[in-house]
Design a protein that fits this description.
The complex is a heterodimer of chains A (479) and B (286).
Chain A lengths: L5 H17 L4 H17 L5 H21 L3 H38 L17 H16 L9 H9 L12 H4 L11 H34 L6 H32 L17 H7 L2 H12 L9 H19 L3 H19 L19 H22 L3 H11 L13 H16 L15 H18 L14
Chain B lengths: L1 H28 L13 E4 L2 H4 L10 E3 L7 H14 L4 E5 L8 H4 L3 H4 L11 H13 L5 H16 L1 H4 L8 H16 L6 H16 L3 E6 L4 H6 L8 H7 L2 E4 L10 E3 L2 E2 L1 H16 L2
Parallel strand pairs in B: 1-2, 1-3, 3-4, 4-5
Antiparallel strand pairs in B: 6-7
Helix pairs in contact in B: 1-7, 3-10
Classes of the chains: A mainly alpha (479), B alpha/beta (286).
Amino acid sequence: MLFNSLDFALFLPLVFLLYWFVTPKNLKLQNLLVLVSSYVFYGWWDARFLVLIAFSTCIDFWVGNQLRRAHKTSHRKALLWTSIVVNIGMLGYFKYANFFIENFISAFASFGIEMHYSSLQIILPVGISFYTFQTLSYTIDVYRKKLEPTRDFVAFAAFVSFFPQLVAGPIERATNLLPQFYVKRTFSYDNAVLGMRQILWGFFKKLVIADNCAKYANIIFDSSADHNGSTLVVGAVLFAFQIYGDFSGYSDIAIGTARLFGFDLKQNFAHPYFSRDIAEFWRRWHISLSTWFRDYVYIPLGGSRVGKIKTVRNVFIIFLVSGFWHGANWTFIAWGGLHALFFVPLLLVQKNRRYLAVVAQNSWLPSFREAIQMGITFLLSTFAWIFFRAENIDHAFEIIGIIFSEASLAAPQVFPLKVIVYIALFVAMEWLGRRQKFAIEDLSFLNRPLRWIFYLGLLLTIYFLGRFSQEIEFIYFQF
Amino acid sequence: MKRFLLHIAHFSCYLLAANLLCYWANQKLYFDRYSTFDGRYDTYLVADSHGHSLDTLTNAFGIFNFSDPSDSYKDMLRKVKYALRNSEVKRILIAADHHTLTTYRETNNNLDRSAIYASREDYPSWYASFNERYLQRYVPLIHGKSRDALLMHIKSLWSNTSRNKSHWADASREYRMSRARLRAGIHYGASKRSKEMEALLTEIIQLCKQQGVEVMGLKFPLSPEYREATNGLGYAPDRIFEKAGVELLDFRAILNRPEDFRDQDHVSETGGRKLLPVIDQYLNQP
């Protein structure tokens, strides 16, 4: 079920009313309702996928409970590896099988050994990369004794499949979300209003910004050879805003929806395009994934406490794996590798933690230096997006070749002024709200009538400027 | 909770008011512009804009023009079923143009508007029926096509595009060719043959035959420029008609003068006045 669908518009109020009016006094029943609703939400795409999520849930629940009883390190390790092999194996088969087979065949072919193969017909289950990481976080934290294994199967299954963040994150940690299923949730007016506001802002980002950018970014990238360099630059910038609006919009809707049910999910984006260097960008972009890799891959590898060469190796590992997590294509690996290249110099001169606070903390506008830093960081991240968006590596290099050719000096052939104006207004609003978790989190400076006028205005903006003739899927569903 | 629900209800009232306003505008600008059925005829023409361009000229020949721009075979099936239920139908003339069998028509159609001719049984589920027949009509705030019609109307208020449109007959051959190529690109550029549209056309033909209604396919006249631009493109429905043993009349090349067309693939009033007697002759031949 898509958030931007009529199905969800009917589903959400129904579940909300059942949750708060039919099951509020019985925690187990309430968790069961969350579980059933989540399975309905997920099964709406394809009910066959439910088998996978149920299997993953059962395995990790079992492993967690076995870890409770296991005291020998070897036994505990074996249990941990069981979970890792099952989850990563499932992910590997559904997401990467064809990629590995094709690349092995290409490698053999380069040595003159011809092998014949036809691609496996595998459908990628929606959100598999997200929920496998979520369940893995549970097993790893139980193994590390940071979390007590749960005996409540319904609560655990609801944690794994929690519908607001099931298919595109934020990737929740068991330490944060699972305990919320153990305690009675109480309805909070302020929290619910905040949730509704965040949902509204998420829809604005998705339908007005991302989907309008997508229209032109797709035209430009899909026929890149027919366009000059400046047009491809416009396309890359539009894609930068498309992916930000799309993914952070989804996260906003997810977090807002969870709030309506009394759950508190992690912030996933913190105005990343206002970052002053790539290190700051990665503290603000897809936070739940980057912290996952930090805690479960980078730190176990030794992090930055293992000497410079190993630290650089560790950085490359997490960026390359993070890129590969996005999809079975060399373009994503190249995207991750580029970010590692941008990041490593900052690490080597120990300037990767220079900017922890938000830019222009105490002023309206950034300083000249900050503006230049933000501009450069945006250009670097947009350059890397070319690899992310391209069909393959050759396509990415073709685009870059055209951008850096003489033809770049010509005027763009596609310049959607209307969309550029939307982006400018959006950036202005994000800038004004950069100290908050999302741009319109705090509207307390407006009295209620003005707030309501603002909400109505935003809704009408979505209605008139949004693209919703056809429901357009969120980009991160494919990951 | 009570406060939250009260505020939601209160805010919803404003939304409802906005919805009513949009509903009123959309009825006038979008839904009311769709054909209204007239059951006094025994011959019905069901087609898309190619048939619609004949307007009410068909009435003089005893044919009710039940065509609308962008109608797909799914829309036409609904109309045919409705006509069969509500009139003494003897003959159905159905569009058999090459673009009607493309995937283009799977997405560019009038399902929201032809829903008034559908019944609950025409939908796979109660929900699908409720969505298309009621929600899309009465809740325009969630309906993209209604919004687009409204926006187009607002834009036309100050741009007045229709008045600035040059007449096809007065335009240069180069201009006409460029328009024809553009149109061909829209029809066939990214489209493929639609199995769904083929199945629906077959269903219409079978339905008419079961009910003892004569059915006949029509290929509408196309300008020489469009014929040149689409040379070799398109998906001929001939095989479907042939297999069903149904006559298919091909009028694509009977009109060749620019004044016979209002654009690259739609006949003008002049063209319509020339075409209809020819169709009539076919229909009434012994």
